[in-house]
Amino acid sequence: MRQETAFAGRARERQQALAALTAGPGVVITGATGLGKTALAASISRDLPVFWASAAQTMRQVPFGVFGGLLHEDDQIHPALIPAHVTTRLVRRSGRKVPVLVIDDAHLLDDSSAGAVLTLALGGKVKLVVTAQAEDVPEAVRMLWKDGYLCRVDLAPFHRRDTAELLRALLNGDVASPTIELLHQRSGGSPRALADLVRQGRETGQIMREGGLLWWREGDDEVLTATGADFHCWVDRDPDKALELLDDDELRAPVLLLSGRTREALDLRTPLTVAFGQAMHGKATPELTDPKHASVIAVANAWSTGEIPLTDPVLGRWLYEPGELKPMPWPLLDGYVRWLRGERNTAIARLREAVVQHAGGWRWFHSEAASWLAIGLAEEGDPDEAEQVLATVHSDPIALLPGLRLKARAAIAVAHGDLTAAANHLEAAIAAAHEAACPAVELDYLIEAMHLRLPVADELDRVLRRVEGPRLIASGSAALALTRRDGAELLHRALEMDRLGLGRLAWRTAETAAAILKRREHPRTAEAIVLVARLRELLHREAPADAPRGLTSREMQVAALAVDGLTDREIAGRLSVSVRTVESHLARVYHKLGVHSRQDLPRDLRRHRRQP
């Protein structure tokens, strides 16, 4: 193991041990087998005049056996003088430097050797580095730290974060969180066992790179064992053929739900479709015993409940079934719920993992994973990668949430500044959700449409009356409040969504509330400003840049698109205005900024293209 990676996850312990050795008489490093005691001892002493002695079970019957390398067979030394003799030999070897004696596995020392080590610690002429398992050690060794002669550094099993750090160092790259969890559990927190697993994974090809992350892969028999209708639907992606083979409503239900025939599925009234219909209205849903069906309901419930269910760390495609391994948060919904909270970076990281997980096996939720990731990337200003991600599910006939890919396309269009295309995609998404009788999904799209200032308030009000649940109602009510431009009401809604864990929408609403209240010099302006500042800090959002030299928001938008190289006609098409209007806006921009053409416009105007 390379020196720079050997102590990843052990930086604090190494610093403590090194300080005890360089500034004091030495250190005792304790811990169970496989936790890196010997490696740490070697690391802190490698540049010093060191003599290394290792105890062993076979030497326990030999008095002073560990000092065999420092004692000659013909030495006739009284046992009481052996520590002084060892000191003399070490000092001669080290020249003018203070010698360092490493005693490895001191829990295996015979009593005579243990007593000699304690005497050396008392003498102060030799520095000691002692490794031992803390249980069942000779009393003389225990006295080294118990009576304060040497500092003790205890190595505990790795926490998950330590495992992640060592894996990144060993593999020289970012590791998927399910792989971190899997190898953490299998290594038992032992750095040695973890290094052995990595070595095995490299030799067997089980460690591979997918989606920019390193993964541990094991046998995936979902595709290999699929037969009949399952093979036609989930492997061949031919739900029509699968439905021809199925006459049992329980078996037809998931095929219909996941192939865009939502209304037909709801008519079956199976436990799965009944639960799905309840989820689509924000109602409480019953627990389903089938893990795949329960996974469908968890996805359907994600926005209304904000719950992050558990999965296994091997495949991570379905809700957790009790087994040998402990569960971990399901990356698919961990990412989506974190996005709703406003935890952007973590959300995108988890959704990247979800895309890789659901690109294999039956791929029930591949479309949802890719769409949510594309939305996140687009809103973070990376529409090109968002388009690449979305292209992976472009023609896939399997998708649970109707219109979600269209919502992703709208987010990409907004990131490109093409508001007309964004509006068209959102209107199509709203229609798809409405046709599928999924009011909770329709509500989600209508809220986004309201933030784009599309005239959908009446539709939103209609849908809002059909759903239940505080998160759905709070989000929809906040979007409706945008039409009334009532700052106090918007502030109330922002506070409500913040309390419900909807940080992203709370922040967007609070920004609008603060602007309105400030403009009207309302008494609650300070409260709104404080909320905005807190949410910006919590969500790592920067304050919006000031408008350059008094440009209006529309002038900034037009100027930003001009900087991107769009013609007047292209800008007019994107913003749904006339070419003459664009020309007028640009003329005012040139005058205010003191420039004469679009080539003279400041490049940093691009940052004003996207609005909160």
Q: Structural class per helix/strand content?
A: alpha/beta
Could you report the average pLDDT, rounded to the nearest whole number? 90
C-alpha termini separation? 48 Å
Q: Which fold name fills CATH's third level, the topology of the largest domain?
A: Serine Threonine Protein Phosphatase 5, Tetratricopeptide repeat
The CATH architecture of the largest domain can be named as: Alpha Horseshoe
Radius of gyration: 33 Å
The level 1 CATH classification of the largest domain is Mainly Alpha
Tell me the number of strands.
9
Helix content: 55-70%
In what range is the share of β-strand residues? Answer: 5-15%
**Largest sheet properties:** 5 strands, parallel
Strand order in the sheet with the most strands: 2-3-4-1-5
Shape: elongated
Task: Please give a structural write-up.
- By secondary structure, this protein is α/β, with parallel strands linked by helices.
- The protein folds into four domains: 153 residues, Rossmann fold (3-Layer(aba) Sandwich), CATH 3.40.50.300; 57 residues; 257 residues, Serine Threonine Protein Phosphatase 5, Tetratricopeptide repeat; 61 residues, Winged helix-like DNA-binding domain superfamily/Winged helix DNA-binding domain (Arc Repressor Mutant, subunit A).
- Helix content is 56%, strand content 6%.
- The protein contains 30 helices and nine strands.
- It has a five-stranded parallel sheet, with helices on both faces.
- Helix 2 crosses helix 3.
- The chain starts with a helix and ends in a 19-residue tail after the last helix.
